[in-house]
Amino acid sequence: MTLAERPKIDLGLTGYDELFMTDAERKENKLPRIHDIPLELIDDFPGHPFQVRMDEDMQQLVDSVKERGVLTPITLRQKEDGRYEIVSGHRRRKACELAGFETIRAEVRDMTRDEAIIYMVESNFQRSQILPSEKAFSYKMRLEAMNRQGKRTDLTSCPVDTKSDSGAQVGKDQGDSRRQVFRYIRLTELIPEILQMVDEGKIAFRPAVELSYLTEVEQRWLHEAMEYADATPSLAQAIKLKAFSQDKTLGPHVIESLLSEEKPNQREKFSFRADRLRRYIPDSVPFNQTEDFVCKALEHYQQFLERQRRDRGDR
């Protein structure tokens, strides 16, 4: 299939020509009018799964807004109380706020909540970088919206057993199979601390899916054990943890024992009790910089030993 033959995806996003139409032209073409909406009247979309990161890209967006304003209006949905919620444009709204603007160009669309969810997910999937947690919750929100619209879904079943094709439909644009979509949805069962480790790349995707079957209490035991041992489970270990959980035999000691197993090609690790190290470290050094301080101290000690060897050689 050539590029020209590929079906086009209509996300309902504002076209280039539409941006510069007058209100009369927009009314004639039955398009939403562009409004200047006060930022103080705009709320976030409930349960919005995509993060607004204060990074270099955001700073570039703020600089662009200061120089040229918001070129692409954000999309809003009016609420019953007269306020608005963002359907698409959380980053642009934040950029306007940081730029010191009081209003933002927006088009207000008449949408049901489920229509707004689907629009919100599809428009945000155009981002260049999407975290696993963002994809997980957005897939779940869209499938639930489709379910309420009458399309068959089953969010509780294993992806292998589901008979619905909605998962395949949701993941199609992202290149994810139905099975992969339901794997992502499993991540929503992780406690926030472990899900953050997945986003940070500390826990791989497939082990994380297996860990999602642990109860909340078991996951908190696991998180505590991972912090203490400075280790994360491999896929094989995660599968074992899930099996122990299903057998109702998973406890802190079992978790610690599994995490202490040597993995293939695993490098030997050392661990120290923090209270033994902190007595030698100034209070001005933050706790999370303990390792850096110790490494720097060891470097200086190594240099001291080398000077001693040189001095002995000179005699």
UniProtKB/TrEMBL annotation:
One of its GO terms (biological process) is chromosome segregation. Residues 153-174 are annotated as: Disordered. InterPro entries: Chromosome_partition/occlusion, ParB/RepB/Spo0J, ParB/Sulfiredoxin_sf, ParB_N. Belongs to the ParB family. Gene3D superfamilies: 1.10.10.2830, 3.90.1530.30. It comes from Merdimmobilis hominis. This is ParB/RepB/Spo0J family partition protein. One of its GO terms (cellular component) is chromosome. GO terms for molecular function: DNA binding. Residues 35-125 form the ParB-like N-terminal domain.
